[in-house]
Amino acid sequence: MSCLIVQSDKTLLLEVDHEQADACRRAIAPFAELERAPEHIHTYRVTPLGLWNARAAGHDAEQVVDALVTYSRYPVPHALLVDIAETMDRYGRLRLLKHPTHGLVLESTDRPVLEEILRSKKIQPLVGARIDPDTVAVHPSERGQIKQTLLKLGWPAEDLAGYVDGEAHPIELDEDGWALRPYQQQAVDGFWHGGSGVVVLPCGAGKTLVGAGAMAKAKATTLILVTNTVSARQWKHELVKRTSLTEEEIGEYSGTKKEIRPVTIATYQVLTTKRKGIYPHLELFDSRDWGLVVYDEVHLLPAPVFKFTADLQARRRLGLTATLVREDGRESDVFSLIGPKRFDAPWKEIEAQGYIAPADCVEVRVNLSDSERLAYATAEAEEKYRFCATTATKRRVTEALVAKHKGEQTLVIGQYIDQLDELGEHLDAPVIKGETSNAQREKLFDAFRQGELSVLVVSKVANFSIDLPEATVAIQVSGTFGSRQEEAQRLGRVLRPKADGHEARFYSVVARDTIDQDFAAHRQRFLAEQGYAYRIVDADALLAEDGS
Amino acid sequence: MTTPRETGSSGGAARGGPRTLAEELRARPDGALARLLRARPDLLHPVPGDLTQLATRAGTRASVVRALERLDRFVLQTAEALAVAPDPCPYGTLAALMCGDAADDPRIAGALPGAVATLRDQALVWGGEDRMRLVRTARELLAPSPAHPSPTGLGPTVAEATAGMSPGRVQQIIAAAGLPGTHDPVSAVAALTALFEDRTRMAALLAGAPAEATAVLGMLLWGPPYGTVTADPAPHLRWLLDRGLLLPAAPGSVVLPREAALHLRAGRAHRAPEPTAPELAPATPHSARTVDATAAGQAFTALGAVEELLTAWQSDGPLVLRAGGLSVRDLKRTAGLLDTTETTAAFWTELAYAAGLLASDGEVDERYAPTPAYDDWLHLPAEHRWARLATAWLAATRTPGLAGGRDAKARPLNALGPDLDRSPAPEVRHRVLALLATLPPGTSVSPETLLARLHWERPPRTPAEPGTEDLRTRLARWTVTEAELLGVTNRGALSAPGRALLGDGGDGGTESAEPLTDAEAGALAVRAAAALAPLLPEPLDHILLQADLTAVAPGPLKRPLAQVLSVLADVESKGGATVYRFTPASVRRALDAGRTAADLKAFLTEHSRTPVPQPLAYLIDDVARRHGHLRVGAASSYLRCDDDAVLAEILADRRSAPLRLRRLAPTVLAAQAAPDELLEGLRAMGYAPAAESAEGDVVVTRADARRTPPRTAPAPVPEGPPVPDATLLGAAVRAIRAGDMASTAERKPVAAPAPADGGLPRTTSADTLATMQAAVLTGSAVWIGYVNAEGAASQRVIAPVRVEGGFVTGYDHTADEVRTYPLHRITGVAELADEHA
């Protein structure tokens, strides 16, 4: 009995407890994408994109077929193997090359394919003159666009036009008393080998260091795009600490500062600020000859940045994320514009290696009181979530939880400011929200880090990239509806390894029999698929236990 | 070399050879007659009265066409060569036509006697070795004519081509060809023919031809032999026309006479005689184990597809179109349901139909639904279920491949529709598989190779429109894909169960094996099932539950488990394994089906290899808590039962819908129906309720799934009569012999009828027909009595040329012209005394 089952819908089921599971995982990882990784059976999916990426990485159809046939428990349907071979065969028929006289050209080894795609209305505006029967000129600015369009037409182009080196700038990792973890090194190497792409690592697994490692490889001026100012400061702090870069070499380009230095850290927000119908700050992309562009939290990449990224195809691009799930379904745009997924590690695997803390996820179900239920039933549809998410019973439960974990660093995370203010008041804890100034935020974070504060109430401003080393308990009282990645990010707040190997706790307080529960189920889906089994606890039981 | 010309028929007859086909048949042993009747079973229906009747029937056009269509390419080529050879034709002449002057291919010489024997067996050729005669109808069918060019590409003979030519023109040609002049046109033509047939003199003549003229001959050489010329031909064409190397065929058109073409071809009638069947060159070999295993996987998929289809149709079958069949929209829906293409969906529906698992329910609002046989089928082990499908497929004349196309009148052909039967289908399927069976296990051939072989065995008729393929070719292609879908073959190689399905007849040697009796077919099905059984994955009785609310069945599940699970969870992914997802809706569905939360949890605990994850238990509890949470309403009656599961079941039962039941408490239901209606309704559902307080024993009935009344599977529509078995053949031959004895014995006394007495000859209509047909064959004249449309009787002497469709056409000596008489107006017929002949 082998460990792999090949399904007719091209998903692969891998039995993780099987002795061959590791070998099998290595064999299928190059072409299949890990879709779900719950406790017993991991699901991989074979997609055309994955197969083409495997081709790009130098694997051929025979290896893919061989891997499937070798590890499959049941005979693999012949049609599926044929389909895989045919799909992989489509890659490389078209190539983007740098022509010595004509600049960027699209060359084909298969003339009918070239004819077919040139007939497409979407391709026509992107190409220039026909140079010879097998070659057509491409406007250099459309390099990203044409790759994206060709991918949608099912004839992916192999991009051999190379990257510009950018303005050189010496950057070294300053590995003093620490070193890149093995998976971080693999991620850096995987990215560098592929040229551009996305690295997926769990929260707290050290994505910043992967960025720093990539910069040390590139040794060139780097543009880093991050979600907000706090996160920008942390990047700067980390880079100064971990690399040969000095404070002076790193610029911040945000709402308050507009510095352009060899390494510049910009926020998405400032880039997408629109004035008089134009984006004045997008010229940042052209302000220097960047050798590397790093996109932090690439799953949040805003739409205008997509457009500009398409024009940056000659530069190396690195995307970093913990959860490449976008509720807007634009994952494929991320892959085609920034690059394919170059590295991916299941959360539980990193946890097993001890680089992130084990976490106990608990869903606390709160019963609404009778009057609340009546009020909920009569609430307007758009008010329903807000009502059940901020119900008074949740406050009592939260208080009980905080009391239970007294002495541990606890974060209370929520969506609605009124609710947070009220909680802050009852818990006697400071609240960090949108209107809190950056200085105040950093002061509070610092106090929390030092242990002067043990409870902090935060709104969604703290969702990303804040470094709270010793938070061991997180209590989520409300969220942005059914956002899966928000749930994962919030769990990430407590996943930094604890000094004493202590287990982290993640509570999600949910109102029973309301849409809050439905949203919670959706939010938890990503983590459940990553193997985080939620426990469900009744609030009444919790309160009773607390009272006794 | 000179081909000996026919010198006259009297010489042959003097040597004592048979004069007619009937005479020859009479001389054949019983075994040979049985072979003839086996090869041409249409001759047996009805059993002919005597050998004369048999011979005339064997000479009818329909029967000859049928026989010719069933010849392999080399035998057909031999027949074609005979059709362009003189009649009768000695074996040597035929051999020369087939092998050519060089006679360089020993394979042809080796295969020829066999081919001739086949033609003889089929009564297409008769007469001694030195006087072989092709049956006249076959000759007419195969001989070249301007309307029907022969596959040989040969034109008419010099004598035929010059038939209408003026004697003066013939003289000119003779002179130009350098032959001594003669005033007799017949001897002039004979001289020209002799010249063309004489290789040395002809070579000398052609040596003087202009180069362009040689090029023209080269173009016409292998046919078609016709060309066009203008009124004022170019000099090189003029040169050819002058010498009779091109003879006028019609105004503006010329033909290369047969003798000249044969000279240029070095005596060959065919450009490429194919004495042996093309090799089945194997394509990439696979290991037999891989093929068998993958085929078994596919067989399992096939079972799944049929089951899924019928499960869906048992509650919501599509409507039957008024003209019969499945609408295009319903087929699309079915394809969506099965997650496959419409072609494949049509195949699965037709397969279920052919196996008798699916039929129309015959109600006013006619729908398709599974038959009762489906329930029996479901209870069979997987390998037997497959064998049932595969044998049904193999024997069916239904051709799913046609669905979605249009018939000759451009009407759409619908799946399950009435026009999808194609008689040759079972034979083609058998043949394709039998050919594959000749290869070693695991070896496949490309479809093209397979088709080349099939085309050799049964040369396809030229298609009506260019670009289309004939039916048998299409059937063969469909067979290849369908066999793959069923798991009879895999990667183009026959699987072990597929091989078992064919039985011993599958050695590929014989064209069509003995028809199988039901018992034999059953035995083969059992064998095939036995071959498949070890290849199928063992059904599992466990699943793996995961915290993300999915369950994975790492293989096929045992039926009861799969059934419960398919209600309790939604299928997310199918294949070797099945992935299920639990959702509130799916859990509710299970509760609707009469299950309780505790029940479900116990079920999962029992069947899961892993502990039931807490979120799943919560999900079930949560849904169960709210399930059936009803409390308000007016009711006409109520129903109480201490066993709340029974009440849940009644609620979930669709038949309780008219009672409009509502649950008030775990043990109480309220109904909108009046108490007596409620009682009756519950009784109809199989419960035994009592009015008011008392309780009876409760009989649990299952959900009613729709079934048709008992139906039999559609019987295959075979082409022509079935191949007779040995017993029938023996009896038939004996009967014919006896009839023949009777008729020949009686013949002498009545052989001399008395036409002189002035009365009309009177014979039975069967005798009339037989005599007429015999006269056609011998070319002799007969004396007939005829009643015209006004009722006036007359006597005529006619030489019949053709007897067809109830009419006899012949040269009427009395009226001195060719006339056609309806057979039913002929009162009788008598042979003329010998001096008239």
Please provide a written account of the structure:
The complex is a heterodimer of chains A (548) and B (837). Chain A has 548 residues and is of the alpha/beta class. Chain A has four domains: 4-90, no CATH class; 94-159; 182-351, Rossmann fold; 357-547, P-loop containing nucleotide triphosphate hydrolases (Rossmann fold), CATH 3.40.50. In chain A, the strands form four sheets. In chain A, strands 12-13-11-14-15-10-16 form a seven-stranded parallel sheet. In chain A, strands 19-20-18-21-22-17-23 form a seven-stranded parallel sheet, sandwiched between helices. The N and C termini of chain A lie far apart (52 Å). The mean pLDDT of chain A is 84. Chain B is α+β, with helices and mostly antiparallel strands and 837 residues long. In chain B, the strands form seven sheets. Chain B has a five-stranded antiparallel sheet with strand order 20-19-18-17-21. In chain B, strands 10-11-13-12 form a four-stranded antiparallel sheet. In chain B, helix 17 (288-316) crosses helix 19 and helix 29 runs antiparallel to helix 30 (614-626). Chain A: Residues 188-342 form the Helicase ATP-binding domain. Chain A: Its EC number is 5.6.2.4. Chain A: InterPro entries: ATP-dep_DNA_Helicase, ERCC3_RAD25_C, Helicase/UvrB_N, Helicase_ATP-bd, Helicase_C-like, P-loop_NTPase, XPB/Ssl2_N.
Features:
heterodimer; A: 548 residues; alpha/beta; Rossmann fold; 7-stranded parallel sheet; 39% helix; B: 837 residues; alpha+beta; 6 domains; 5-stranded antiparallel sheet; 34 helices; elongated
Largest sheet of chain A: 7 strands, parallel
Q: Percent helix among the residues of chain A?
A: 25-40%
What value does the Rg of chain A take, in angstroms? 25 Å
Count of alpha/pi helices of chain B: 34
How many domains comprise the coordinates of chain B?
A: 6
What is the residue-mean pLDDT of chain B, rounded to a whole number?
Answer: 81
Provide the low-confidence segments of chain A as ranges.
none
Low-confidence stretches of chain B: 1-14, 505-513, 693-702, 746-756
What percent of the residues of chain B sit in helical stretches (DSSP H or I)?
A: 40-55%
- Oligomerization status of the protein chains: heterodimer
At the first level of CATH, the class of the largest domain in chain A is Alpha Beta
Widest β-sheet, arrangement of strands of chain A:
12-13-11-14-15-10-16
Distance between the termini of chain B: 36 Å
Q: What integer value in Å does the Rg of chain B equal?
A: 38 Å
Major β-sheet of chain B, in short? Answer: 5 strands, antiparallel
What global shape of chain B is seen? Answer: elongated
The most extensive interface, with participating residues per chain, is:
A-B, 34 and 34 residues
Distance between the termini of chain A: 52 Å
- What fraction strand of chain B? 5-15%
